[in-house]
Write the structure tokens for this entry.
Amino acid sequence: MLILKPADIPSSEITPESIYLNRRQFMGRSLLAASVLTIGKQALAETDMALRDLSFKPVTKDKASGYYTDETLTPYEDVARYNNFYEFGTGKGDPAKYAHELTTDPWSIKVEGHVEKPGEYALEDILAKLDIEERVYRLRCVEAWSMVIPWVGFSLASMIQQFQPTAKAKYVQFETLYRPKEMRGQRSRTSSIDWPYVEGLRMDEAMNPLSFMATGLYGKQLPNQNGAPLRLVVPWKYGFKSIKSIVKIRFVEREPATTWNMLQASEYGFYANVNPDVDHPRWSQKSERRLPSTLFSPNRILTEPFNGYGEQVASLYKGMDLSKFY
Ligand SMILES: Nc1nc2c(c(=O)[nH]1)N[C@H]1C(S)=C(S)[C@@H](COP(=O)(O)O)O[C@H]1N2
Ligand SMILES: [Mo]
């Protein structure tokens, strides 16, 4: 395959970040092709190259909103190759290897429960009414690694408003696609997860302006392994709350069941707010490995309460004992 590189950038400097920053000056597609091919994983390269450019309002570089951080972005290849998406296997490399088996078009979302406008919506009809924007968020996995990712999408609140929840809607539950034919992890007999993957938020958490639905990252459509075509991003909570490939949204009165909580309630609570003071029973949560992280440069940093978004969200939990509601 032909590898195109713009002559004026030394290949050593073709990082996903420089691609991202230069995409409007150069031919974005050939640059992406060059960088992805150097990763060496042919299957990923081909599927990622086919990802469409999205149009969106670039992030405003205002840190006070929480929508932006100037920390170094995690390179594209780490974001798209080191994943948790158990529907495709439990290894960090499995989603990038197998998620291309999933078809994401057509896609629709079922909306149920306490809403004025329940029904099944085609994803493009939902998107047509929303302002697509960019957010640069930290994502902190419960396994104590983290990334900084430039997402593209829209606020969860703006989507929820379309469905007009009633006063009885106290929580919202999300459900991932169940399609074992295309999701090999769902066919695995050793998996202990009771599919489909489900997650949930309290209504005020869902309506907080930081709660985000992503349709893309690094200016492109979401790679399947990152939860295409639509996934949640809740930056102050552990990564497992950020459910991928959503097909159902249900508005309910009581705290809904969530996958990791059902699997091991003593380790994974409903709230799952990032909290360096509450250790996971099997490991500390005081610090994290910011990816890329290697044996020789582990890039370990201290974890902040609410993943650094305390100013925006701490008030949601006023009066709650966060070691009890972990
Ligand atoms: N449906 C589904 N969503 C999921 C998961 C999963 O296994 N299945 N893993 C979660 C976990 S543990 C993390 S850390 C993030 C990882 O998102 P990323 O791979 O885009 O970085 O996705 C979350 N969403
Ligand atoms: Mo995670």
Observations:
- Residues 83-87, 139, 141, 176, 197, 226-227, 239-240, 242-245 surround MTE (ligand 1) (CB under 6 Å).
- The chain has one domain: 17-317.
- The two ends are 50 Å apart (CA to CA).
- The longest helix spans residues 28-39.
